Amino acid sequence: MPSYLIDLSAVKELTGIKVKHNRLTIGALTSLAQVRSSAEVLANAPALTAAAAAIAAHSIRQLATIGGNIVTRVGDSLPGLSLTKRSWFGKMTKENARWMRSRGWNVAEAERQGFVHDR
Ligand SMILES: Cc1cc2nc3c(=O)[nH]c(=O)nc-3n(C[C@H](O)[C@H](O)[C@H](O)COP(=O)(O)OP(=O)(O)OC[C@H]3O[C@@H](n4cnc5c(N)ncnc54)[C@H](O)[C@@H]3O)c2cc1C
Q1: Per the CB 3.0–4.6 Å rule, which of 27, 38, 47, 83 could disulfide with 14?
Q2: Which residue's CA is the closest to the ligand 1 atom numbered 27?
Q3: Does one domain contain both 65 and 109?
Q4: What average pLDDT does the segment 63-80 reach?
Q5: Statement to judge: residues 70 and 98 lie in one domain
Q6: Which pLDDT score, from 0 to 100, does residue 96 have?
Q7: Residue of the CA atom closest to atom 26 of ligand 1
Q8: pTM listed for this prediction
């Protein structure tokens, strides 16, 4: 057992879906059920809506988060995310890229396309 557990659910910025300045933002703690039923996601990333609808059962989707689904590296949200016009690479910092590389992701394409920024 870990010595400490940190509950991130109080960090409001990590939950929710919004569109601002033509950019769709989904907080990492947003549940797959919220992603599935979001009108903003449907309008901007329909493949992600379809992917979220296909993941597990309703009861699991209430608890499972999109952040957790991405980090598993085999999550079914990944094809939906990569098919969106506003790619999830859209706002990757060098720090994000370093973290993703450490988890075994290949971020070369994102770097090549100029999606990796200093901050
Ligand atoms: C019965 C059942 C059916 C399932 N069916 C499917 C399916 O059909 N398709 C599918 O893709 N998945 C499926 N899953 C797997 C899983 O439920 C989902 O991938 C889910 O989205 C994981 O989210 P979570 O919040 O539960 O993450 P967790 O399982 O809690 O975490 C997964 C990993 O991500 C890390 N992590 C979680 N949140 C963050 C964050 N915000 N920042 C950084 N790291 C983070 C955790 O430390 C852990 O390493 C299923 C699971 C169950 C139990």
Answers
A1: 27
A2: 68
A3: no
A4: 89
A5: no
A6: 74
A7: 64
A8: 0.81
- Residue that the structure tokens 């706002």 belong to: 91
Same domain (yes/no): 105, 54? no
Say which CATH number the domain at 29 has: 3.30.465.10
Ligand 1 atom with minimal separation from the 8 CA: 41
Residue 81 exposed, middle or buried by CB count within 10 Å (0-12, 13-18, 19+): buried
> What's the pLDDT score for residue 31?
97
* H or E, element range at 93: strand 92-93
Number of independent structural domains in the chain: 2
Q: Is 32 in the pocket of ligand 1 (CB under 6 A)?
A: yes
Q: Which contacts of 11-15 are long-range, i.e. CB under 8 A and separated by 24 or more positions?
A: 14/67
Tens-place pLDDT, residues 12-71: 989 999 998 888 899 999 999 999 999 999 988 888 998 999 999 999 999 999 999 998
| Nearest-CA residue for atom 18 of ligand 1 | 69
